[in-house]
Amino acid sequence: MIPAAFDYHRPGTLDEALKLLKQHGDEAKILSGGMSLLPMLKLRLASFGHLVDINRIPGLDYIKEEKGTLKIGAMTRQATLERSDLVKSKVPILADATPLIADPLVRNRGTIGGNVANGDPGNDQPAIMIALGATYVLQGGKERTVAANQFYKGLYETALARNEILTEIRIPAPPPKSGGAYAKLKRKTGDFAVAAAAVQLTLGKNGAVESCRIALTNAGLTPVEAVDAAKYLVGKTPDDKTIAEAAKMAAAKSSPSADRRGSVEYKKEMARVLTARALKKAVQRAGAN
Asked: What domains are defined for the chain?
């Protein structure tokens, strides 16, 4: 299908892009990779009078570590993340997930900023950012930061104001004896997850869980943070019985919708299974650090 008519803008600086957003208000929409936005426009599921393409703005594409924080520019392509040795060494959970996003064509064009900013509960990286305790940097009239687990408000609804652009993701460096993992079930290459689970945890000297975060993909209208399940694990040895109980608690927090990928019951069961798998792999990685 052909999208509704719109005016196309290609600013050369961040300030110019922000001025366009302020000028056109609700009629303006940021275009980064376009992997989610363009199909919605073509299907007439969304319509905007002005698209502001930020692909030519310099300084928004980078992966670097500064003072114990991994900083990723919002325009960093998924393919760049996939090849990054820094990502693989510092946040293996993100390295797990990136090759599972869509297909190589999409990863060559899609950006991490677009993946986390548009509020689609089927996107993989929002749950991962919640598990990692990440923070998003938003630029508008002034810079502000929002924790990933406070960013998602509803279906395609986020804390990002109309006159703001997400410019950077900040991930605190995991402490020693930490491990993370992302487990995903999808029907075919390029498809959204039937269910997926992100886990990041740290073990104490006695082998018990010192801290933990668990988040689920495609388990509701927003990424689902399984707070109770993570709290249950803290202070406990992560054996098979404990992991099974935590996975059950996490799945109970999910509220998926039935579709061609499966029934509600099936998706909740897959959330349980995948959470257990991610927990086991995270514990294994933490023990090896």
From this structure: 7-52 (3.30.43.10), 63-172 (3.30.465.10), 178-288 (3.30.390.50)
